[in-house]
Amino acid sequence: MTRIHSAVRRRPAVLPPSVSIMFVTAIALAALGAVGLAVGTHLQHRAVREGAAGRPRDVRNGTARALLRPVWLLGLGLIAVATALNVAALGLAPIALVQPVGSLALVCAVIISALALRVPVRRGLVLGISLTVVSVAVFVGVSAGFASGARATDSAVSLLTWLLLGLSALALLVARARSGHIARVACAGIVFGAVASAVHVVAVEALARFGPSLTGAGPLDTGTVAGTDAVSASRLWGLIALLAVASALGMWLVQTAYASGPPETVLAGLTVIDPLAAVAIGAIVLGEYARIPQPGILALTLSGLSAFAGIALVVRCHPSLASARRPGPDQEPVSHVETLDADGASTPNRRS
Predict the structure, then answer these.
(1) From CA 236, how far away is CA 146, in angstroms rounded?
(2) What is the DSSP string of 190-209?
């Protein structure tokens, strides 16, 4: 199906006051969502760790026990509220304006962990956070300058559905196999990037089809001629079904990642790898960056690499490792690393 580019409306050079208020509201909602995500992530990590306490080789059962803990449920509620706030923010402003604000979640999580563990925030960690946040902001900012806002076609939705199916199978394999902490985080970030792309498609279609009738306003600016349905209902419902499956498997993969490492690296993956994966899927599957020039591609590549460098610094210098390396009055310096065996159990490896 041919994309309709001529019907895309350009925004006026000067935004009216009502639009400016919407943008400010979107930023505030995204910031609140980032804080809620950080707090919820910390609470869930704490619940999973407490569930596995005393049984270091029983991480999978410990994770299951954590699902019944009030602290884990509170964390889940905060994450749900944060997700709703982020969705609302994306409905009020472009993704380029909202997505970088989500990087605040990583900063909040590190501060929370430092306070909980009573360790100072190291200079390397500050550098890693700064590099990650700036790199993601540059990446999304460059992408926003060239991305088109056209609605998805039937063929694109079919491809995205198959992609979600494949990533769901991959998430299941990684969660049950002998995979390390970083592999679990990376896979979860990619899965949720695909989920975010699917949510974007569904949200755009919902706003285009039902928004005007619910609000009483005129046709919404969705990138196609008003009144046309770019995606068939059957394929849209199929995408929604796979979206639910991928989300559930991604959440379970995140829980196993909590049990195998610190929450900062989990949040870093969801904060950085998620949007990078979503942008890549938007470019390859949805064709959102068909007209990006070579300098733009270079800027995206460099900012993406620097974001991964920032993640590496966060992994190396996060407060949990600093606490593990800090010896007690009668202890020798010890570093603590955990791996998961083939059954998902945690095996502590200590090095003097």
Answers:
(1) 26
(2) HHHHHHHHHHHHHHHHHHHH
Q: How far apart are CA 25 and CA 14, in angstroms?
A: 18
Q: Which residue has the tokens 């200079």?
A: 123
- 337 Cβ neighbours under 8 A, 6+ residues apart: 348, 349, 351
Q: Is 339 helix (H, G, I), strand (E, B) or coil?
A: strand
Q: Is 122 left (phi over 0), alpha (psi -120 to 50) or beta?
A: beta
Secondary structure element (H or E) that encloses residue 168, with its range: helix 154-176
Single pTM value for the model? 0.67
pLDDT tens track for 33-46 = 989 988 998 888 77
Using DSSP, state whether 220 is helix, strand or coil. Answer: coil
Residues 6+ away with beta carbon under 8 Å from 331:
none
Nearest to 276 by CA among 197, 181, 160: 197
Q: Rounded to the nearest 5 degrees, what angle is found at the Cα of 40, between the Cα atoms of 239 and 131? A: 85
Q: How far apart are CA 184 and CA 254, in angstroms?
A: 7
Q: Are 257 and 59 in contact (CB under 8 A)?
A: no
Residues 170, 192: Cα–Cα separation, whole Å: 13
The residue length of the chain stands at 352
Six-digit token string for 101: 């604000």
SS3 335: strand
Using one digit for the tens of pLDDT, what is the confidence trace for 272-294? 788 778 777 877 887 777 777 88
| Cα(320)–Cα(329) distance, integer angstroms | 19
How far is it, in rounded angstroms, from Cα 16 to Cα 272? 32
Q: Could you tell me if 81 and 36 are in contact, meaning their C-beta atoms sit under 8 angstroms apart?
A: yes
**CA distance linking residue 120 with residue 111, whole number of Å:** 9
Q: How far is CA 264 from the centre of its chain?
A: 13
Q: What's the rounded Cα separation, in Å, for the pair 322 and 316?
A: 9
